[in-house]
Amino acid sequence: xxxxxxxxxxxxxxxxxxxxxxxxxxxxxxxxxxxxxxxxxxxxxxxxxxxxxxxxxxxxxxxxxxxxxxxxxxxxxxxxxxxxxxxxxxxxxxxxxxxxxxxxxxxxxxxxxxxxxxxxxxxxxxxxxxxxxxxxxxxxxxxxxxxxxxxxxxxxxxxxxxxxxxxxxxxxxxxxxxxxxx
Length: 182
Prior knowledge:
By secondary structure, the protein is mainly alpha-helical. Helices cover 70% and strands 0% of the residues. It has 8 helices and no strands. The chain starts with 5 loop residues before the first helix and ends in a 5-residue tail after the last helix. 24% of the residues are buried.
């Protein structure tokens, strides 16, 4: 039998987390989903807490560090970099994981502390980008929090947008935030 990779265990854990929260991340359940025995799990992880920690590492890498690096690497001005970061964050897989981490943070202080650190990193990125073409501390902070709220909260908006799809309405809001200061 082919050995299941560490990455596949982490990916299966993230999928379980997105579907059912941290209680759904069980070694036996993941082994079944992967079509393997749970014995291979212990070749990579000292136990479930180690897997949960590596899942958080993967979320942080994928949903923050890689996303910001990719948005920065493609060049262009600060507004274009924010636009690209927003487009990258619209991946449904990434968003589902991010929302699951946020729900988990309500019940786990260590996860909440990590989420706060990552959210601060994301907000610092936005402040830096908006600060490149907007002046005034208040304006930079307002646009940063609105852009961040739009990214995180779009999932919770159930309103109709007459004449627009939800995605079009969100795009309009994002473009409004990226307008040069008047």
